[in-house]
């Protein structure tokens, strides 16, 4: 394990699959395929650094509503293929490294067969505790907060919660990341400098690193440099 100050929870916005494919004159689907494979590399690098919790922004609600149908179908095929490998292969890196896989988002909006595989992987890995990987799929940070508010209002209406007891802890309890620490560092590839509705509540005091490199082309040394940059920052949390 490399001895530097590392984030407890790392968030990643993996942007640039389609542009990478276009740059090398391949179709967008090929870019998504390479992007999916990059996840395993990132998790391996995180294990070397001792980063226990990682959240990938794999598909936003906006992507789900606006991407071309054929592109979404290919993405779903890729997701199902990877989930099948986790379920069927004991030597898959998820199983070998006892990585708990969580899914954050409106998964009920996904195809039924994909929902079933998500549930199966969640059950298979629920007792893994060495590492944790969150896949934000059909996810939106604002929508997550709206749903949390709805849950809290329901508890108040049912007489289970007094309005004057609503505080930050209550809101956190109703978020999809309940039980996970806030992300210390969020890395976005692809050159854009925005969070695009990712972990909106949780990222209040996150450090950010925006990389121009397109996601499939991210190299280990660049990733390590980003984490090392984080280790040298003075995090004051408003002090």
Describe the protein in words.
With 239 residues, the protein is an alpha/beta fold. It has one domain (9-140, 182-229): Decaprenyl diphosphate synthase-like (Undecaprenyl pyrophosphate synthetase, 3-Layer(aba) Sandwich). Helices cover 45% and strands 15% of the residues. It is built from 9 helices and 6 strands. It has a 6-stranded parallel β-sheet with strand order 3-4-2-1-5-6, sandwiched between helices. Helix 1 crosses helix 2 (28-49). It is globular, with a radius of gyration of 18 Å.
Summarize this structure as a short list of keywords or feature phrases:
239 residues; alpha/beta; Undecaprenyl pyrophosphate synthetase; six-stranded parallel sheet; 45% helix; globular
Give the arrangement of secondary structure elements.
Layout: E1 9-13, H1 17-23, H2 28-49, E2 53-60, H3 61-66, H4 69-88, H5 93-96, E3 99-104, H6 112-125, E4 131-139, H7 141-157, H8 168-173, E5 185-188, E6 207-210, H9 220-231
Parallel strand pairs: 1-2, 1-5, 2-4, 3-4, 5-6
Helix pairs in contact: 1-2, 2-4, 4-6
């Amino acid at each position: 394990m490399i001895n530097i100050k590392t984030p407890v929870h790392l968030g990643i916005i993996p942007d640039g699959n389609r542009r990478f494919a276009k740059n090398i004159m391949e179709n967008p689907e090929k870019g998504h395929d390479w992007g999916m494979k990059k996840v395993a590399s990132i998790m391996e690098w995180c294990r070397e650094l001792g980063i226990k919790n990682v959240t990938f922004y794999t598909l936003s609600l906006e992507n789900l509503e606006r991407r071309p149908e054929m592109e979404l179908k290919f993405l779903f095929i890729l997701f199902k293929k990877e989930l099948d490998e986790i379920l069927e292969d004991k030597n898959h890196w998820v199983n070998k490294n006892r990585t708990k896989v969580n899914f954050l988002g409106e998964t009920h909006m996904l195809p039924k067969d994909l929902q079933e595989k998500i549930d199966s992987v969640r059950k298979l890995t629920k007792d893994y505790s060495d590492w944790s990987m969150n896949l934000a799929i059909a996810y939106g940070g604002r929508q997550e907060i709206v749903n949390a508010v709805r849950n809290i209002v329901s508890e108040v209406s049912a007489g289970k919660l007094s309005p004057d007891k609503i505080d930050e802890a209550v809101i956190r309890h109703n978020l999809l990341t309940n039980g996970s620490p806030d992300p210390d560092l969020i890395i976005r590839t692809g050159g854009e400098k925005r969070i695009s509705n990712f972990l909106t509540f949780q990222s209040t005091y996150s450090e950010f690193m925006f990389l121009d490199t397109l996601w499939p082309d991210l190299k280990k040394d660049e990733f390590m440099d980003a984490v090392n940059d984080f280790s040298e920052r003075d995090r004051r949390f408003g002090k």
